[in-house]
Design brief:
InterPro entries: ATPase_NBD, FtsA/MreB, PilM. By secondary structure, the chain is an alpha/beta fold. It is built from eight helices and 13 strands. The strands form three sheets. Strands 3-2-1-4-8 form a five-stranded mixed beta sheet.
Length: 338
């Protein structure tokens, strides 16, 4: 799976920067390292670009906790920073003609000039099994150059090698697929990643494109809890059972609307359950969530399915580290990076 022996997944959030390093060990993936640097102030602006000097400082601190040979990095962009579009292209176009056709199609709908965007596109599997079609569906992703370049520049200045820039949703879904396979979990499952101010809900329907929603709900909904003192996205100070139940009820209210919308658009890919990840995992009452949603619920522990040495085991036994879900998924993606 891994062409490179060590791959780093780096998750750049508003409140911290997290890194996970994986290596191939025989037939298994081994967790080589993980680290987090809490930011004194957000490095991400409203346009999704980052403050490169501030991010560079955080990554240099992260690098001190990573193995010496770890260089290749996979990054993620928030889905809200990316334009996603499916278009039809003639199957007989050359590479240059395909690029021109994609740019023309995107320029008609993009709020930004095409020269300000970085593009990526790939053909989707055709649903037709008859004679070759004249056109094929193509998935197009685009993001502002400044959004991509500001992150890539910080990585390069830290003397690391940025290999892939991906969507945050894809990182969560890769981790879900890997964990489900390791735990022999069958059926259609979604992922709920609870952060400090946002919660992501995503599903990869069988045979379909990834489904994603970003919800304005997070750990800050906890009343009377000072989250600014936490070392990561999860509240480290204790909360009462009443606070946990109230938070879970609010999460249920938020998810019910999204589940209804998902079921209405994907009637043939109904969910069997949800994986709960992110820093807010620790304040969710799992049994209550299952009962109120009528779905199976599992807590996703990103490091549980990787091989670890004894020293790493001792560290991981001290917590779930569920806030590393995105970074772990990105490190998995690194195994396919060319």
């Amino acid at each position: 799976m891994f062409r490179n022996p060590l791959t780093i997944g780096i998750d750049i959030g508003h409140h911290s920067v997290k890194a996970v390093v994986l290596r191939q060990k025989k037939a298994q993936l081994e967790l080589a390292a993980f680290a987090e640097v809490v930011l004194p102030a957000s490095v991400v602006n409203e346009q999704h670009s980052v403050n490169t000097p501030a991010l560079l400082s955080a990554i240099r601190k992260l690098k001190k906790s990573l193995p010496f040979g770890a260089k290749n990095v996979v990054l993620a962009l928030p889905d809200s920073a990316v334009i996603s579009k499916v278009i039809q292209l003639d199957t007989n176009l050359s590479d240059d003609e395909s690029v021109f056709a994609v740019e023309q199609a995107l320029s008609a709908s993009s709020p930004f000039p095409i020269e300000e965007l970085r593009l990526d596109f790939f053909p989707l599997a055709s649903q037709s099994f008859s004679q070759p079609a004249q056109t094929q569906p193509v998935q197009v992703f685009a993001a502002r150059r400044e959004t991509v370049d500001s992150r890539v520049d910080a990585i390069r200045k830290a003397k690391l090698n940025p290999k892939v820039v991906e969507l945050q949703t894809h990182a969560l879904l890769w981790l879900e697929e890997y964990v489900a396979e390791q735990q022999n979990t069958s059926g259609q499952w979604g992922v709920v990643n609870i952060g400090k101010t946002r919660t992501e809900f995503c599903v990869k329907p069988a045979g379909g494109a990834a489904y994603h929603r970003e919800l304005a709900f997070g750990c800050q909904a906890l009343q009377g809890v000072d989250l600014q003192k936490s070392e990561d996205d999860s509240p480290r100070i204790s909360i009462s059972s009443e606070q946990a139940e109230q938070f879970t009820k609010q999460l249920v209210d938020t998810l019910k609307r999204q589940l209804q919308l998902y079921n209405s658009t994907h009637p043939r890919a109904s969910l069997q359950g949800l994986w709960i990840a992110g820093g807010g995992q620790s304040v969710v009452v799992k049994e209550m969530l299952e009962r109120m949603l009528g779905l199976d619920v599992k807590l996703m522990f990103p490091f549980a399915s990787f091989e670890r040495d004894q020293k790493m085991d001792m560290v991981i036994d001290q917590g779930s580290f569920s806030q590393y879900a995105v970074a772990a998924g990105l490190a998995l993606r690194g195994g396919d990076a060319s």
